[in-house]
């Protein structure tokens, strides 16, 4: 069985000189469908997020991107929470959770958490692991956790957060040669812009 699972990491083809595994292909497809469902505020996005995160966690662990690998584990946990929020969560008014916008104070807190968490995690990865890109690894990791919380609570501000995270991730995955994933995150940026516009229209 281990050999069969290891075969999932074998190259399906080569892109720009780097191998693309079957694992990366499946994770890519699941992630695209997940974002489309997020744009439509469809709770089925969350189980797809769980599957995609498990696969990407495996891929990043194999590539020694420990921050990103650990992030995928946290994504799985947060995805179960987000799934419950979309199905049963309540807003501050006690009503069913709906698409909303962060206050200025809330946006400032989210930004401060991201900027404070980035060097802390980067320093940890630099000293505690053999990660080749600890600070490039740390920034999208912290930003993604903030983005996931915003998404789970249906804040439209999750979309600009994802735009920033995806832009940094393009560089990170390019440096590691994950070209299919680079293409995925390049597609995520205009999808995030479209999702932001769609969620804003829901509040009109």
Q: List SSEs in N-to-C order.
A: HEEHHHHHHH
Helix segment tally: 8
The fraction of residues in strands falls at under 5%
Shape summary: globular
Number of E-type strands = 2
Backbone CA Rg:
17 Å
- Structural class category: mainly alpha
Structure at a glance:
The chain is mainly alpha-helical and 204 residues long. The chain has 8 helices and 2 strands, in the order αββααααααα. The chain has a two-stranded antiparallel ribbon with strand order 1-2.
Question: Could you describe the 3D structure shown?
Answer:
This protein is mostly helical. It has one domain. The chain contains eight helices and two strands. The protein has helices spanning 2-7, 22-39, 45-62, 66-88, 104-128, 134-152, 158-176, 179-201; strands at 11-15, 18-21. Strands 1-2 form a two-stranded antiparallel sheet. A hairpin with a 2-residue loop joins strand 1 and strand 2 (18-21).
Layout: helices, strands, pairs:
Layout: H1 2-7, E1 11-15, E2 18-21, H2 22-39, H3 45-62, H4 66-88, H5 104-128, H6 134-152, H7 158-176, H8 179-201
Antiparallel strand pairs: 1-2
Helix pairs in contact: 2-3, 2-8, 3-4, 4-6, 5-6, 6-7, 7-8
């Amino acid at each position: 069985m281990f050999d069969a699972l290891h075969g999932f990491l074998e190259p399906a083809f080569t892109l720009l000189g780097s191998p693309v595994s079957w694992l990366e292909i499946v994770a890519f497809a699941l992630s695209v469908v997940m974002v489309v469902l997020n744009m439509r505020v469809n709770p089925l996005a969350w189980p797809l997020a769980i599957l995609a995160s498990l696969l990407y966690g495996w891929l990043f662990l194999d590539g020694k991107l420990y921050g990103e690998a650990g992030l995928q584990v946290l994504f799985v946990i947060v995805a179960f929470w987000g799934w419950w929020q979309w199905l049963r969560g309540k807003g501050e008014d006690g009503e069913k959770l709906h698409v909303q916008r962060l206050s200025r104070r809330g946006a400032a807190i989210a930004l401060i958490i991201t900027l404070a968490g980035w060097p802390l995690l980067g320093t940890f990865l630099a000293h505690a692991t053999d990660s080749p890109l600890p600070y490039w690894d740390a920034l999208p990791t912290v930003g993604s956790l903030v983005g996931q919380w915003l998404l789970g609570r249906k804040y439209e501000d999750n979309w600009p957060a994802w735009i920033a995270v995806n832009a940094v991730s393009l560089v990170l995955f390019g440096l590691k040669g994950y070209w299919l994933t680079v293409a995925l995150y390049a597609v995520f940026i205009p999808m995030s812009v479209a999702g932001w516009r769609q969620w804003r229209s829901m509040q009109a």
